[in-house]
Amino acid sequence: MIFLDNASTTKAYEECLDIAKKYLFEQYYNPSAPYGKAIEVSKDIRSAKLKILRLLGGDGKIIFTASGTESDNLALLGTRKINGSRIIISQAEHPAVYNTAMELKQKGFDVVAVKTNNVGRVSISEFEKVMTKDTNLVSIMHVNNETGAINDIKTLCNVAKGINPNVIFHSDGIQAVGKTKVSLRTLGVDLYSFSGHKFHAPKGIGALYIKKGINLNPIIFGGGQEDNLRSATENVPAIMSLAFALEKTINNLDTNLAYANEFRQMITKSLNDDCVKIISDDNSIPFILSMALKYVRGEVMLHSLEKYGIMIGTGSACSNQKQSKRIPQLMQLSPEYHNGIIRVSFNSFNKKDDIEYFIKQLKLEYNTLIKYVRG
Question: Labelling 226: which of 2, 11, 208, 289 has CA 20 to 30 A away?
Answer without folding.
Answer: 11
